[in-house]
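ok so dumb question maybe but i'm new to this and my supervisor (M.) told me to 'just get the structure for HAD-like domain-containing protein' and walked off. so i did the thing. is this what she meant?? sequence i used:
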Amino acid sequence: MGKINTILLDCDNTLVLSEELAFEGCADLINEIAATKHVPLDRPFTGESLIVEFVGQNFRGMMVSLQARYGFHMSPAELDDYVRREEDVVIAKLQEKLVACPGADDVLARLAASGQYKLAVVSSSALRRVQASIDKVGQAKYFGADVYSAATSLPTPTSKPDPAIYLFAMEKLGKSAAECIAVEDSKSGTLSGTRAGLKVIGYVGPYKEEEREHMEQVLREAGAVVIMQDWSEFDECLAKIERGEV
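this is what came out, is it supposed to look like this??
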């Protein structure tokens, strides 16, 4: 196995506790779209109901799913316009309330100080939102320009579980999958990393206590080789992968 020298990190609910805030803003906009398009929803979407269904997917991915489910149509220009509006709504919420995932800052600081690893962010979310998130919590200094977005960085926008964004990031960084590991909190993110040939650490810290066991199983089934309950376990998870135990 090649020596691991690169750590690829998902952003939302892996580095920062953003999912709940983002989905709140997103739900408001989706309910507005449903009204405009005369989509008969059983009940309006809430941040919580969207999270259950779409965690790890970006807004464009959600819209594609919802159009298929409810049989309404949106022109590409209209979709682009809503994607921009969703970004604005969510960034405003994040700038107001966002905090880092507990323990993530300590690990990033230690990894950066060691000089052994290249650190990069690989997210489904729009680049502007990811940058706003890591700026807000003071993590941007660890990544520099190595921030990659499936919604923004690729020639054709996509969303995890498509592995395209991981493949793109590795190509830009000049790294092979054997040199990298990924840290992911969602099924779609874990699938994305695994399909790109990466060993994935599945992180279940931000989930509610009663959901963690289930999510652990979901992430393992999606390909996570080891599960991390808390960032304090990161070193041991990494060591297991480096020793070739998983």
